[in-house]
User: Which sequence fits this backbone?
C-alpha cells in the first residue's frame, strides 16, 4: 500500500469514529503563571543542571514542565512558574553563563494551566480537549499529561471561554 | 521544602512506578494550523492505543512537536502507519526511540513546593541521566529515559525523595 493510499485509509477510519460522551471528575485552574520556553543546542545535562539550580535558588515554583529532544540533537524545554516568581525566574535566564548556552528564550506572562481529570492516557480525551479549545481560536502554548491528568497552558484572557466550552464538551460535575 | 542554596529536607512521595518496554514517538515540526489532534488522536483511538506519556509543545518557528509513549507491542501495530501519519500531519520528522522506561513520581504537593522540579532535574543532570522527555503537571512528574538508565534513575530518586518503605 502506498503512503497516499494508507493516508486515505487512515483518514477514512478516523471518519468512522464517533467517540462516546466522556465524563470527567474535575477541571482545575492554576493561579496565574509565567510561561518560559527555551532550547539548548545540545542535550547538555550539566548546563541544564545549572539552569535548574538557578531556578531552585530563586525558589521558583515550577508548576508545569515539559522537555523533549528536537530533531537535531537539541533539547526543548517549556515551563510555567507562578507569576509571583516570574521576575526572579527570568533573572536566571539573563545571567551571562546562561545567556551563552540557551537559545530561543520566549516568555509570556498572564497564562494559566487548565487540568482535567481523569485522563488515563485516552487519546480521544486529548483530542476533544485540543479540538474544543482550537475551535474557539484559543492558543495552546503547551499540553502535557500525567497518568491521571491532562493539562494545557493557555492565556488567562481565554480562561472563561475555555472553561465554558470544555464544560459543554465533557460531562463535568 | 527549602531549596534556597541546598535542599535541607527530603520530601515524602508515594511509591514510584516504573514501566519498561515502551517506545517514545516524537512527531516534530507539525504546522500550528494543521488539525493534527483529530488525525493523530483519532487514529490512536481507532487503533485502541493508550499513551502512557503525552506532551505537546511549541516547536521551532511556527511549528509544534508532539511526543508520546506507547508499549513496544502497540508500536508494532502502528509503526507501519507512522510515515503516513507524518505526511497527513505535514510534520517534518517522526522519530522513534526504544526501548525506553517511564518513571512516575507522585507528589504530594509538588505544585505548592517551590524548587522541587528544579532540584530533581538538577540532580539528574549532575548524575548524567538525560531524560528523553518529561512532563510535570500539578503533583506528578513523568520521566522517560533510555531503559538502560532506568535502574540508575530509580536509585537516584530513592536518594532524592523519601519513598515508602525506605527511610
Assistant:
Amino acid at each position: 500500500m502506498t503512503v497516499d493510499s494508507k493516508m486515505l485509509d487512515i483518514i477514512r477510519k478516523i471518519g468512522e469514529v464517533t467517540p462516546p460522551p466522556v465524563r470527567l471528575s474535575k477541571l482545575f485552574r492554576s493561579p496565574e503563571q509565567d510561561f518560559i520556553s527555551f532550547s539548548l543546542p545540545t542535550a547538555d545535562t550539566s548546563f541544564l543542571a545549572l539552569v535548574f539550580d538557578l531556578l531552585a535558588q530563586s525558589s521558583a515554583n515550577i508548576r508545569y514542565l515539559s522537555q523533549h529532544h528536537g530533531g537535531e540533537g537539541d533539547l526543548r524545554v517549556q515551563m510555567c512558574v507562578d507569576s509571583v516568581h516570574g521576575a526572579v525566574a527570568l533573572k536566571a535566564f539573563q545571567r551571562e553563563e546562561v545567556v551563552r548556552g540557551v537559545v530561543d528564550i520566549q516568555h509570556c506572562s498572564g497564562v494559566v494551566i487548565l487540568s482535567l481529570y481523569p485522563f488515563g492516557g485516552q487519546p480521544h480525551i486529548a483530542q476533544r480537549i485540543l479540538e474544543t479549545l482550537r475551535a474557539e481560536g484559543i492558543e495552546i502554548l503547551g499540553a502535557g499529561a500525567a497518568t491521571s491528568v491532562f493539562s494545557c497552558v493557555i492565556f488567562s484572557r481565554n480562561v472563561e471561554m475555555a472553561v465554558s466550552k470544555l464544560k459543554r464538551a465533557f460531562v463535568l460535575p | 521544602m527549602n531549596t534556597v542554596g541546598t535542599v535541607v529536607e527530603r520530601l515524602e512521595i508515594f511509591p514510584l512506578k516504573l514501566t519498561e518496554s515502551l517506545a517514545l514517538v516524537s512527531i516534530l515540526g507539525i504546522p500550528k494550523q494543521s488539525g493534527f489532534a483529530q488525525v493523530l488522536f483519532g487514529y490512536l483511538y481507532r487503533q485502541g492505543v493508550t499513551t502512557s506519556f503525552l506532551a505537546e509543545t511549541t516547536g521551532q518557528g511556527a511549528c509544534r512537536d508532539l511526543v508520546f509513549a506507547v508499549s513496544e507491542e502497540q508500536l508494532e501495530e502502528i509503526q507501519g502507519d507512522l510515515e503516513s501519519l507524518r505526511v497527513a500531519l505535514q510534520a517534518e520528522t517522526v522519530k522513534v526511540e526504544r526501548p525506553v522506561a517511564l518513571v512516575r513520581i507522585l507528589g504530594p504537593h509538588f505544585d505548592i513546593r517551590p524548587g522541587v522540579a528544579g532540584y530533581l532535574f538538577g540532580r539528574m543532570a549532575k548524575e548524567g541521566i538525560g531524560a528523553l522527555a518529561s512532563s510535570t503537571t500539578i503533583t506528578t512528574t513523568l520521566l522517560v529515559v533510555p531503559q538502560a538508565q532506568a535502574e540508575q534513575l530509580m536509585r537516584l530518586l530513592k536518594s532524592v525523595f523519601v519513598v515508602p518503605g525506605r527511610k
About this structure: Chain B touches chain A through 71 residues (CB under 8 Å). Residues 36-46 of chain B form the longest helix (11 residues).
